Amino acid sequence: MMLSSTHIPVMLNEIIEALAVQPGGRYIDCTIGGGGHAAAILEHSSPGGQLLGIDASPEAVEAAWMRLKAYGSSVLIVNDNFVNLEAICLKNDFKPVHGILFDLGLSSLQLNGSGRGFSFQYEASLDMRFNPEQKVTAAEIVNTYPEAQIAQIIRDYGEEGYSHRIARSIVAERPLKTTLELAQIIERAIGSRRGKIHPATKTFQALRIAVNHELEYLESALKQAVSLLGFEGRLAVISYHSLEDRIVKRFFKQESSDCICPPQAMSCTCHHTARLKLINKKVIKPSIEEVKANSRSRSAKLRVAERIIAQEEWRETAERLCFLGEVDAGVWRKPALLKEVQSASLAR
Q1: Is the per-residue pLDDT at 328 higher than 50?
Q2: Closest by alpha carbon to 123, among 181, 209, 192?
């Protein structure tokens, strides 16, 4: 059964600009959610645009399909985790592409309607799996993991200063069954609301990240994304907390550098070649107007990079094209074109 969604896509105009969406382009939305960004990308890439949407949540896939079905064969939606990005693209012959988007936030559909316990504001089971076919749940973590391991998860993935106190209270009160039960235990352990966030916010974030392997999967997917981009293709990532943003920032910095040797190295031994060019050196944040209209956008950070091709990679690619195996046509060798390509590459 499809659940209604009131999800408002974050920084919609900024994403269209960041991806440099063009008619006839091919794009991937790795976290399609309710389909808000995807619909805008399809609209701006018309005529001829194509979009591959991916989401681990079956409810999100159904909601996105209902929203985007009018685009017919221009859109393909897959129920899978973006950690399998490259395999999904190979299976569906969807590469190279002009742009790839990761919006790492939870949609209203997940927070309010999935019933899998992502929010402490609603009574639900302690599940927190994006896909119900996954094995480990939040309930298993809080009810069976040792206190020290629970504390480490809360500290590392939630950046919670009271991780040991919370873990101690969880172990003392278990077994736990519902979100509200867990939220109340946390509130009793560390006190009532401090500032703008509920005391359970960081712990719920940490459990969700642990259940879904979010940080490990993000690192893997970013590496795959670069290999899927065509020349001058864009990679855009919206993150919502420091752990995600740190991974994206570090990855973009590494892939936009020709050397990643330690600063103390006397000479370069890494043989690393830049594959990305940073489009925004400073992180892009939502406007004041957007934050007022959509409070969930307040912590969003957008980073954008563009695929480049190093001289050697460009020359090898061009040479392969010049020696394309059109043997039957008798034109498989194009020496004049190859000479022109080689001269151009040397001048780059």
Answers
A1: no
A2: 181
